Structure formats: structure tokens, C-alpha cells
Amino acid sequence: MTQLEVSECELIASEFQWLSREGDVLIRAHSPKYGRFLIASEIQLRYSNLMPRRVHAYTALAEEKYQCPVYAVLIVILPPQPPMAIPACYEREFLGQRAYLDYRVICLAEIDANIALEQPLLPLLPFVPIMKGGSSEANIKRALQLLRADEDLAELENLLGFFASFVMETELISEIMRWDMAVLRESPWYQEILQEGLQKGRQEEKQAVALNFLRLGVTAETIAEATGLTIEQVQQLQSQNLTQPG
Prior knowledge:
The chain is α/β, with parallel strands linked by helices. It is globular. The chain has ten helices and seven strands. The chain has helices spanning 51-66, 113-118, 137-148, 156-164, 170-177, 181-186, 188-199, 203-215, 220-227, 231-243; strands at 8-14, 24-31, 35-44, 70-76, 89-94, 97-102, 104-107. The strands form two sheets. Strands 1-2-3-4-7 form a five-stranded mixed β-sheet, covered by helices on one side. A two-stranded antiparallel sheet has the order 5-6. Helix 8 (203-215) runs antiparallel to helix 9 (220-227), helix 8 packs across helix 10 and helix 9 (220-227) packs across helix 10. The chain has three domains: 8-108, no CATH class; 112-186, no CATH class; 189-243. Strand 3, helix 1 (51-66) and strand 4 form a beta-alpha-beta unit.
């Protein structure tokens, strides 16, 4: 994979106005080798098969608007359900015409949390709880300490709390962060998870969603909130999953 040496970075826009949707970040960068270019990032909670086309469209619009080469990045926060693999390109052929775009795929759950904590990479700090090796209380406290050291990053504390709720009980999060469960419920990503659970009305579908969350290390309390199952039902699924042969 190509490694870029970037000497300058400047945030141009988030929620790119030509495409009215959340999760877009556009950064102007400079490399001694490649000169000035744009980094167009699509950030989503989980992968869907609509994303390659959106990345392709977003990249083309950014290149046209700013008249500058674009390096496309798809950032997925939660890992896909096996055996799904996230494609690293978009391709479409219609009436003999072919469109194709490679892009960089970054799955935050597969990145070592120490990378974010030791450098530190401030934009990644809220995601530490779901990054590889980042779910410990000590790592979450460290991420919180780094965020609170910069007044401009105060709003990211709520996002850190949201992802911490995937791996620990909300009572402990409140103790660490002086943080209220109401903050979590206001998060659009929390609402996305909640609605995903509520829309799956049949019991077996709720259980399938719960099992996927359990594999991600999400707490029983959060899973119960998202699926409508009781905590006892989630714990029973967890016990059954542990006793199944690997």
C-alpha cells in the first residue's frame, strides 16, 4: 500500500455541501512528492453496499469543485459481519462504459489503540474503546485525559463516552467521565443502533443482531436497549455462544 508523506493538512469541510449527508470530511494536504491534493473521507458507523458508489461520487465532485487530485478514504468504525469483506474499489459498467475508483479502506476496530494514544492522534481518541486493545478502563481514562487537555476537543468527550458504552457498563462510564446516559441517547449513532434493533421485529432477528453485538464486545445493557431483548435474554445468548464449539 502506498505510504504518503504529508507535510501540511487543512480541514476544508465536513458534511460536503454538494452531497447533503453526514460523515464527509474534506482535507487539503501537501506532500513533497505529490504536491497539493485533497483527502476525501467518508466516515460511517458500519459498512453498507451503497458506500463504494457514494465514495466514487464524492471523490468526483470534490475533484471538480477544487480542481485538485483527490485521495479517497472510506473509514468504517465497526467491523463488518463475517464473512463480509469491505471492497477497496468501486466499479460499474453500463452500455460499454466503465467507471472505476480505488480507495483506501480503514476499519478503526482493526487499528491498535496505542497508535492513537501514544502519538497522540487527537481525532482518533473518541474511538479508542472500540480500537484493538483499547477497551480497558486505563486506556479510556487516558483518552479522556488527552481530550480534556485541549479545550477545542471538549465536544469529542461525548463521542468517547458513546463508544465506551460498547465495552463497559454505563455506571462505570459515569464514574470515569462524570457522564450521563442521556448524552448517549442523544447521539445519532446510538439512535441508528436503536432503530436497527427496533425495526427487526421477529425474535430470531433480534437474537441475530444481539449475537453480532456480543461478538463486538458490546455490553448486555446496550444490546438490550438496541434490540428490545431483556438483559437476561442477552446474557443467555452470551452463555450459549460461549458454550458452542468454535
